[in-house]
Amino acid sequence: MLKTYLMVMLGGCFGVSARLWMSTAMQARWGEDFPVGTVAVNITGCFVIGLFAVLTASEGIWAASPLVRQAVIVGVLGGFTTFSSFSIQTLTLLKNGQLTAAVANVFISVLGCLLATWAGMLLGGWMNGKSS
């Protein structure tokens, strides 16, 4: 178990670094009026997690051990973008015929995260002595 945690943490270091690099490069190129860096990171991460998950599954052409899959999917790609994890989980629910759960996951995740971010911003503003 300790080995798994260490591998995921190591992968996370690479993912976070890649996210910072890519997001910063995109923002430098396209400006900061729209979060193009974040969108690019999320879309890229979602593509890579889908590709990697299929290719490294037990029936995939590059079948990988559970440790390698966790290090890359949870560590590297989780550090790169959590949106990729959300996407693969939602598509897995759909693949397994769990339409209601998939739709609920989308709405609860998106609305819940937006509301939680807003609440955190309000609380942070209040703690900072500001009311916005």
Automatic annotation (TrEMBL):
GO terms for cellular component: plasma membrane. GO terms for biological process: cellular detoxification of fluoride. It is a multi-pass membrane protein. It is found in: Cell membrane. Its main location: membrane. One of its GO terms (molecular function) is fluoride channel activity. It comes from Roseimicrobium gellanilyticum. This is Fluoride-specific ion channel FluC. Belongs to the fluoride channel Fluc/FEX (TC 1.A.43) family. InterPro entries: FluC (IPR003691). It catalyses: fluoride(in) = fluoride(out). Keywords: Cell inner membrane, Cell membrane, Ion channel, Ion transport, Membrane, Metal-binding, Sodium, Transmembrane, Transmembrane helix, Transport. Fluoride-specific ion channel. Important for reducing fluoride concentration in the cell, thus reducing its toxicity. The chain crosses the membrane at residues 6-22, 34-55, 67-94, 106-127. Na(+) binds at G78, T81. Na(+) is not transported, but it plays an essential structural role and its presence is essential for fluoride channel function. HAMAP family: FluC (MF_00454). Pfam families: CRCB.
